[in-house]
Amino acid sequence: MGKLLKTKDETYYGKITAQGYSRRDFVKFATVMTAFMGLEHSMVGQVMKAMETKKRIPVIWEHFQECTGCSESFIRSDHPLVADVLLDNISLDYTDTLMAAAGHNAEEAKQKSMKENYGNYILVVEGAIPTKDGGIYCTIAGRTAVEILKESAAGAAAILTFGSCAAFGGVQAAHPNPTGSVPVSEIIKDKPIINIPGCPPISEVMTGVVLHYLTFGTIPELDGFGRPKQFYGKRIHDSCYRRPYFDAGLYAETFDSEEAKKGYCLYKVGCRGPVTYNACSTTGWNNGVSFPIQSGYPCIGCSEPGFWDNSPFMERLTNVNGVGIEATADKIGKIVLGTAVAGAAVHAVATNIAKRKEMKEANDCGEDNLKNIKY
Ligand code: FSX
Ligand code: SF4
Ligand code: F3S
After folding, report:
1. Taking the domains of the chain in order of start, what are their residue ranges?
2. CA atoms lying within 13 Å on the CB side of residue 285
3. Mutate to test the pocket of ligand 3, among 276, 277, 297 (most ligand atoms within 8 A of CB)
4. Which ligand 1 atom sits nearest the alpha carbon of residue 63?
5. Ligand with the closest atom to the CA of 169
6. Per-residue pLDDT tens for 123-157?
7. Which terminus of the chain, N or C, has fewer Cβ atoms within 10 Å?
8. For residue 161, how many other CB atoms are within 10 A of its CB?
9. For residue 373, what pLDDT is reported?
10. CATH code for the part of the protein at 236-343
């Protein structure tokens, strides 16, 4: 991983500039991604250096049982380079959904890349893998998903499961799981697996993980569900802009109520934010424009294992066993804000909102900011 090369064409920077992006686009991208990766601003130079000097990481991207929403999310990333760093011939050697080639040509390209980059490529998997009846419920050119996955995993340096289906089984594995679907981790046991769940996941997370790998030569620190902590370390609830309403005991009881119109907390209409770890409330979707809760709909916990079976979605959780003050929502209104614990919670929310601001600023950074970057 991350071999130093003499030819600039083999680096991300070389490929990016060959695609017509300017130096300024590159610096801006590195700045945004450094903030997103949870690194100090002073690390921008190191991220840039890695992209300028290290060989791009080849990516093979397989698709199995899925709705392809994960790819849709990925190609609609806000910052064009977030997707282009992996797409547009910069790093992606094979994806049957997005590549121009099809059929035998596509298969040939994959086999060639797997052979040439054996032991060095990242395998991205989208979708769950059906195992029932010999795996016949997902076949490509007559081969089962199980067979294809085992083959492409053999030469991978690491596997990124992109989406809750590949990470945890997702909707395919929901009760009664008619095709016996399983996540990648139940088939592949001898490779590092980085889970990037969400239905769909946030595209910047995948690019962030690849850049982390490139910059530091290691996979990021993972939580107990195999998710990178820098993106899944906090609950939606910890950064939710409706959190002051939760803390004050102000809830929308129905979607068509006055309270809902006022933007009160959605906990009582089923919000899973207090038990869901993801970056949506920090980064937002569509260039930070919104995320489910901001659009008036409760978080359904799409980045958590087995979330489809944790329904009906629009019914309140009976218990919130979160950290700190929120034993149950009913008790919250009785807690006086200003106690040490409530203060800590407010501080956590404020810190996360500050993080969101930092990312927004990085995204909007002007000439002055760019000039200040040292590398
Ligand atoms: Fe699953 Fe992705 Fe949900 Fe869909 O490929 S995580 S059903 S958004 O598309 O796999
Ligand atoms: Fe936001 Fe949901 Fe938490 Fe309410 S319960 S503050 S809507 S995450
Ligand atoms: Fe999913 Fe909840 Fe984010 S439903 S998209 S984790 S706000």
Report:
1. 2-231, 236-343
2. 19
3. 276
4. 5
5. 1
6. 999 999 999 999 999 999 899 999 999 999 999 99
7. C
8. 28
9. 45
10. 4.10.480.10
